[in-house]
Amino acid sequence: MDNLARLLKESWILVEGDRDRLASYFYARLFLLDPELRQLFPAQMNEQRDRLLEAIITSIHTVGDPERFGEFLRDLGRDHRKYHVAPEHYHTMGIALLDALRTAAGGQWNLEYDQAWRDAYAAIAQKMIAGAADDGNPPFWHAEVLTHERHGRDTAIFTCRPLQHRLPYRAGQYVSLEVPRYHPRVWRTYSIANAPNDGNVLEFHVRTPTGAGWVSGALVRRVSPGELIRLAAPMGSMTLDRTSTRDILCVAGGVGIAPVKALVEELTGWNRTRWVHVFYGARTAADLYGLAELEALTVDHPWLSVTPSCSDDPDFEGEQGDVSEVINRYGPWTTHDCFVSGSAAMVRSTLRALAQDEVPTAQIRYDTFGDL
């Protein structure tokens, strides 16, 4: 497995600088091999190409960790049921992926890399097919939007409830979400911002980037109570281990507070002995939209502390600087279970800070929505 992981990472370096070409060639080859697959995907493929790259990157990062590798791929197989992917489609996708990698890498590709990707893809397809086959839930859930609240120009919090079947998930996980009224067959991943509850209500925090993000833009600016959206199977391993006795560190940036909020909510139901330290960072005080709700929880739960910080607000009375810098002023964190959520840049810098603090990697959980 170590040699396989080395070959995958080594060969990925050859193509990662030309990702758009890699993804475009993959889908062009896929649809040429099986034209009927085109109808499963959206008319505009921009965001779909991003999803492919995220899946490849996460697979590469987890291949050296068999347990995490298997868990991620089983979840991915369940998630791909929303596209109506059948077991026979995986063979075609494997051919298209190898062709795309060879083309993007050019003359630097060799037989060792080719065999490594063949072996890796065989394992990937097997685990994804098994994950889909073992899932007795529907491929996606129809859900009604219950509430919708704007926070500034680009952020919204909304709640929804699946209409028929209960959506089973754990605090800290995320789901793919589609807004069929505005962007059919375009799916985007979002963390669930609350712990499971008797009412089967799910909360989401969404921020739309400037000039991008079709689904996010619709969720922030166009969706209103009463509309229907679709939710796919829950994914992600940023979940609590109830058997652990270690204290907990949560580091969140911007809307990355969503899964952290869900984790804290779950802890309020049973935790009595583990100290929980939440560091919540944003650019300005106005961006700390979830701070008041977190601070209110500290009143009834003395084991919880919340430390906010701003990186670009000199008038803010709390901690100043990037949240990854702020956690270095506290700690050490070597005896903690650590959870990190935010932008790819924020997660990357926080992981570096925890590594410098010599926190064991087995005690760190995060979910990758981009290249780390």
TrEMBL record:
EC number: 1.14.12.17
This protein's UniProt keywords: 2Fe-2S, Heme, Iron, Iron-sulfur, Metal-binding, NAD, NADP, Oxygen transport, Transport
Domain FAD-binding FR-type, chain residue ranges per copy: 138-241
Record field: catalytic activity: 2 nitric oxide + NADPH + 2 O2 = 2 nitrate + NADP(+) + H(+); 2 nitric oxide + NADH + 2 O2 = 2 nitrate + NAD(+) + H(+)
One Pfam family of this chain: Globin
SUPFAM superfamilies per the UniProt record, alphabetical: Ferredoxin reductase-like, C-terminal NADP-linked domain (SSF52343), Globin-like (SSF46458), Riboflavin synthase domain-like (SSF63380)
Protein name: nitric oxide dioxygenase
